[in-house]
Amino acid sequence: MTDRAAAGAAFDADVMIVGASFAGAACALAAARAGLRVVVLERKVDPGEKLHTTGIVVREAAEQTWLRHAPAECFHRVEQVRLYAPSLRSLALRAPGYYFLTTDTPRLMRWLAAELVCHGVDLRLGTAFTGAQLCQGGWHVPGIGRTRYLVGADGVRSRVAVTAGLGRVRDFLYGIEYEFPGLTLPGPDALHCFVSKRLAPGYIGWVARNPTGVQAGLALRHAPGRTCTPDIDGFLQRVRHLLQIPDDAAPGATRAGLIPCGGPVARIARPGVMLTGDAAGVVSPVTAGGIYSAWRHGEAIGQAMAGHLLHGGVAPERVALESAPRFLTKRALRWLFDRLQFDWPFEVLLHTPPLRLAAERVYFHRRGVRAC
């Protein structure tokens, strides 16, 4: 037995990941497919329940990540963004070849959990992470065992971050989303985005068709210490006539939660422990690309842990830090939107080149955009 193998035999796992959503699953799949022993702790018994994500997947995630293997029934393709001013005047935006996928998110998360098991991950559903202690060469998680690496993919209120003394997410949006099963929308499929300082200060409202119906959400800037809940019912009352959502339509499911918007946390890793996904703040603060950035970061960490343990490669803690996207331009837009959001300039600028350029950066990731 080699020295590396002998050292590994003293541990119950090479990697323990807390959280089985997109970033945690990406990290687990990358590490397990490379040959590591991976344990994933997920507090939910059913990974498709009590979701917080909108589940909107950008083209890059659909084509360049493991999500490309998901069943087609999980997705609904959307090729247009319709942007609405506060008066409900609108602008249709397209980019040749670009698209979004809305998802049957519960089904997608259950498929993803099955993929983990299929690739040899020890997925422990209904298992909450309560803490960990440093041990020789790694971490000891009570009731679970010893691991070389601990990864926190457990959301904006990460217990792993608290346990390990890592950075905490400080800047948030707060969002609520309804799902209306069986509904459809009129006209060409689009991601409908609504700007309104009164209803969505600091962010937007949105409506889109998905594989099972229609999803509608509203998010606003979260102010610590002040309770402010998005008025999603007021938002729907204002826009339902445009999208032909019946007055008596009742949501079949509701999602709500905090959305990081301040960029990566100050301390994303220390020896033997790293954060990814929402816990690390590595989600885009302005656009629907959060799943993609979280996936790529989690995957990079998983590959780095395998490369380091099996081949003496670069330390994964360094990779966790260096591969974290900074979102500098989008964070600048976020800062401006927080402080200079007024309805009248948006009305004036709706059909102008500067606004179309901003939409290109936000929705289509700098690809050419065509306004209709």
Give a concise summary.
The chain has 372 residues and is α+β, with helices and mostly antiparallel strands.
Percentage of residues assigned to helices: 25-40%
Count of helical stretches: 11
Can you summarize the main beta sheet? 8 strands, mixed
- Label the CATH architecture: 3-Layer(bba) Sandwich
Say what the CATH topology is: FAD/NAD(P)-binding domain
Oligomer: single chain
Task: Tell me the strand percentage band.
Answer: 25-35%
Task: Please tag this protein with its features.
globular, single chain, disordered C terminus, disordered N terminus, FAD/NAD(P)-binding domain, 372 residues, 31% helix, alpha+beta, 8-stranded mixed sheet, 11 helices, 19 strands, 25% strand
Describe the structure.
It is built from eleven helices and 19 strands. The strands form three sheets. Strands 1, 2, 8, 9, 10, 11, 17 and 18 form an eight-stranded mixed β-sheet that branches. It has an eight-stranded mixed β-sheet with strand order 16-12-15-14-13-5-6-19, with helices on both faces. Strand 1, helix 2 (22-33) and strand 2 form a beta-alpha-beta unit. It has one domain (3-371): 3-Layer(bba) Sandwich (FAD/NAD(P)-binding domain), CATH 3.50.50.60. Residues 1-6 and 366-372 have low confidence and may be disordered. 31% of the residues lie in helices and 25% in strands. The chain has helices at residues 3-9, 22-33, 59-64, 105-118, 159-164, 232-243, 290-311, 316-322, 328-340, 343-349, 353-363, and strands at 13-18, 38-42, 57-58, 75-78, 81-84, 90-94, 100-103, 122-125, 133-135, 138-141, 145-152, 172-181, 191-194, 205-210, 213-221, 253-260, 269-270, 273-275, 370-371. It is of the alpha+beta class.
